[in-house]
Structure formats: C-alpha cells, structure tokens
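Researcher: I'd like a structural prediction for the single chain below. Treat it as a standalone chain; there are no partners to consider.
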Amino acid sequence: MEKDISNRKEQANFFAQKGGKLRNVAATMREKIEELEEDKVDIRREDKTIPAFTIGNQDISHPAVRFESVFIVKDHKRIGKKFELILRKKMHLLITGPNGIGKSTLLEALYNGTEKGMKIENGTIIGYYRQDFSTLDFDASAYDVLKEVALDATDQDIRGAAARFLITGDLLAAKVSSLSEGQKGLLSFARFTLQKPGLLILDEPTNHINFRHLPVIAKALDKYEGAMILVSHMPEFVKQIRIDEELDLGKIG
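Model: Treating it as a single chain, here is the predicted structure.
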C-alpha cells in the first residue's frame, strides 16, 4: 500500500503541473490518496491484537431466563417446540441447528419478549450482540454508546475500556455508522465490559471481527459468570468456551 500511495502522489503532482483539465484529475487523485492513507491507519490499528479482558456480570439470585417452549422456522412459519430450561447465573447455553431454522429469529424474540414460552426475568441486565449491530445507536458517537451503559463509570473508565478494544482518538468521537463492521464488533464487547450484564445473548459474535482477536474473546466468554446464550457457526471458537447446555433446533422434537 505504501508503494501504491507513493506512485499515486507522483502521478497527481505530474498532472497538477500540466494545468487545465489535468488539474481536476490531480485533485480527484489526491482525494483518493487521502482515503488510502486513512485506510492505512485503520489497517495498522487493526493489526494489533486486543489484550486479555473480562466481562463482569450482574449479581442476580433469580433465574435469568425461563424456557417452556421455543420455535423453529419452516417455510417462513414459526413452529412451536417444547423445551424446558431455567437458565441461571454461570450457565452457558449453546443454540445450534442448520441455516434458516430460525436461530437469530429466536434470539430476537427472546430479547423482545414476544414469545410466551420464553421469558427473561425482570431486572436482568441484557447484553445483546446482534449480527447487524442494531442494538447500537448508529447516529451516536462511539463514546456516547459506551457512556449509555456505563452509568457509574468515569470518563477515564470509558476511554480505558474503549482503548482496550482499539477504539481511540478519532474513532471514539466518530459516529457509530462510520465505523467498520469489525470496529462495531469490538465496540460491542467494550460495552459489555462496562455494562456488566446478567445475561449475554450472542448472535454470531465472530462475524466481522479480526481473527487475531477471537482467542482473546473466547477466553473472556469462557470465564464469564453470568448467564449466556450463544449462537456461532465456528466450532473451533465454541470449543474454547464452557458450554453447560445445548439446544439443537434441528433435532428438537
């Protein structure tokens, strides 16, 4: 990339000196060079690996989730299935099943409280990692998104949490919508460390995130002592995390 940028700069300077319409060409090239240099900074930042971290948990004595039934999706219709489980603190539930069976839809329904057969207990703080990051306010700054869940944290706490996930300086002040998908993923985990949820709902948390970070994230989830529900298509990632219960939507009766 360095060589490409250098070559483009030489060409832009050459065209600028020729004058006329070529000056417009040079201006366009310089805009592209600026974009490449910004990308170069992002690449250097993302080449780093996040340090080890922990996700604290809300200390709750009541169950986090009560399941009496779940559903699968077939031909765009929900089909109810009996499934009884009380998910408590320190319990990790893995939900598996073939693509299209409704794993993400099930998590969304649980979070939104739209299904009678499964309920998150009142008072439970929920950390929800969605594939589309729609739990984040795209119009807010990264800093404000962190501050929103860090009620007792100081400015230093928030900036420290962000820095551990490579969200620093201009990124912290930028709108969430301007962040890369990988940065949104890391921002989500920074939120969890400040939020200290009693329940983590994780829908494909490896999506978009640099592979260098995944062992660090897996270790943090393995040691998480709240209740957790995980959906992941990466067996090698799941193997690194303690799983206490599994719900296979493809085999449920």
